[in-house]
Design a protein that fits this description.
Layout (H helix, E strand, L loop, with lengths): L2 H22 L5 E7 L4 H20 L4 E7 L15 H10 L3 E6 H11 L9 E4 L2 H10 L3 E3 L2
Parallel strand pairs: 1-2, 1-5, 2-3, 3-4
């Protein structure tokens, strides 16, 4: 095999592995990350309305979507069991929608817990991630669209 042929085979193999690896990351047609960093019920409800509308739109087209809502900073109140103005909606939506993830920033949770002098309890539908900001970066690197209501 000539040097040029070997390089061609390596490039084609790398492209195939890259593309097939990317496609296997998700069985959905679309992916979106939604960001909440405000302790504002209107913003929280707008984010949840965005989720419902996005899901309804793609369902009507027969397409699938993975949605991840990431909250950090003051937005973590959205996921707190004691202060969330939308905890009932979170519960209902997590049951109704496939491929919906709620991610809470571990850094914010740690700092809020430290300030409160106790562990802050989050609603059960939430997954803790080490850093909300890093989670948003990584989701975008994985091809997720980004929405901030």
């Amino acid at each position: 095999m000539t040097r040029l042929s070997a390089i061609f085979v390596l490039v084609v193999t790398a492209i195939f592995v890259s593309v097939s690896g990317f496609a296997s990351d998700s069985d959905t047609d679309h992916r979106v990350a939604i960001h909440v960093d405000e302790n504002d019920p209107a913003t929280m409800n707008l984010a949840l309305n965005n989720i419902a509308n996005i899901k309804k739109y793609y369902d009507s087209k027969g397409e699938t979507i993975a949605i991840e809502l990431v909250a950090y900073g003051p937005g973590l109140h959205m996921f707190r069991s004691d202060t969330s103005p939308v905890k009932d909606r979170l519960s209902v939506m997590s049951l109704e929608f496939d491929n919906l993830t709620f991610s809470a920033c571990g850094n914010t949770h740690h700092n809020m817990s430290k300030k409160a002098g106790k562990d802050i309890e989050l609603v059960e539908e939430v997954t803790m991630v080490p850093s909300g900001v890093v989670q948003l970066i990584e989701l975008q690197e994985e091809g997720y669209a980004y929405v901030r209501p």
